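B., you asked whether I could sanity-check this one before it goes into the benchmark set. Here's the sequence:
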Amino acid sequence: MARTTDVKLASRPAQRQVRAAAPRRWPAFVERIIGYLREVWVELNRVDWPSRRELISMTIVVVVVLMVMAVYLGVFDYIYTVLVKRVLLPPSPR
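And here's what the prediction gave me:
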């Protein structure tokens, strides 16, 4: 790595090439939408998609976990409902 004191500075700065602006074919907002959709397509092509087998196994895991959580929450909801009805609410007159 060279030190800045060892670097010989050019007498004039490098000139950038200026490209002429391409003429617009669409209004600006349509060009932005088209550019956005192109970028989305490029990103989707970069994604490492799971195989069908991996997708099915992950889906089964999610469904099983959801079912277990639903039963768990349902049991506690039932227990708390019974407790609230017996402890907090007065008995109904008959």
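One thing to flag: Residues 28-88 form one domain. Otherwise nothing jumped out at me.
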